[in-house]
Amino acid sequence: MILTVDIGNTNIVLGGFDGDQLHFVSRLSTNHATTEDEYAVTIGDILSLHNAGRAHFEGAIVSSVVPKLLPVLKKAIKKRLGCQVLSIGPGIKTGVNIKTDDPSVLGADFVCAAAGVMAHYPLPAIVVDLGTATKIFALQEKGVFLGTAIMPGVNISLDALASRTAQLPHISIEGTPPVIGTNTVDSMQSGIIYGTAASIDGMVELYQQELGINSTVIATGGLASSIIPHCRKAIILDSDLILKGLLSIYRKNS
Length: 254
Prior knowledge:
This protein has about 250 residues and is an alpha/beta fold.
């Protein structure tokens, strides 16, 4: 098996691949204060839950948008599994041809999502990643990464509403609220869910105009399943896209 680890600003997602089959997915809260030993214990507990022991793994690969945690998780995985641990960074082969102004500063999450698209979907493609931030990027044929748009994520927007106003509460995203809310919670959920969905529809339309060609549209990220069903555009929901990209990159470098 191959262990794939995506370290995000809010969550750390672990995925175990047996061949091309994703055997398990698990999420941890991202905590900057957790030590490598503590992460090693937690990872061991997660693997035990899925009946995946040390002997099952031949390698691992880690992606991180939290630079401080990358060496911590790599050491934790090495302690727990004793296998080769790769990471997304300079010198690793991804297959993605980055055409931004400074390719060195492009987030590892963008690179892994692009690799996942290249491995599983026809190009050109537009990708929407709904995580801590909402990110959109365009990928041309032959894996040419053109550029991105970045917006405040769903939870950032909700936190801003609650913290910057006197009477709006902290709420969670759940269910299908009425478009025209008749109470505070429904009104906030309507604005966030349908407003974000409409924003994504609009951005996809603009991207399609810029590309001038029909493109596959894929959405991923922890909040995608709450928002994408309310979009009017035809968007493929793939919550495991970054993990799939990590597996593809691991194979290119092993």
